[in-house]
Design goal:
Helix content: over 70%
Shape: globular
Strand content: under 5%
Number of helices: 4
Radius of gyration: 15 Å
Structural class: mainly alpha
Number of strands: 0
Oligomer: single chain
Distance between the termini: 32 Å
Largest sheet: none
Length: about 90
């Protein structure tokens, strides 16, 4: 996605190696990154603004579980995140 995230991905890989595990370097798809940023924006404008980082973390976990259950392309994962973000924006009950 950009130099910062390329470097961060390498750091995750090296940290995993120090724990005796080999992982694929995490990479952010631009569409998914945009939806995660939008999710953080929406959450940060609620009374629970401090939860924005954790909201994006749980979105990542949920997206990975979706991909494990049903392989999806980046556009489908971005749409999945967008769906929940739009529910939050409308104030729909969870």
């Amino acid at each position: 996605m950009n130099e910062f995230f390329e470097s961060l991905g390498k750091r995750w890989t090296k940290a995993a190696e120090r724990r005796g595990v080999k992982i694929e370097q995490p990479a952010l798809d631009p569409k998914i990154a945009e939806e995660l940023l939008e999710l953080a924006r929406v959450v940060s404008h609620t009374k629970e603004r401090r939860f924005a980082p954790l909201a994006t973390y749980t979105a990542g976990m949920a997206a990975e579980r979706l991909r494990e259950a049903k392989p999806e392309d980046a556009a489908a994962v971005a749409a999945y995140i967008r769906e929940v973000r739009e529910e939050l924006e409308r104030g729909a009950p969870g």
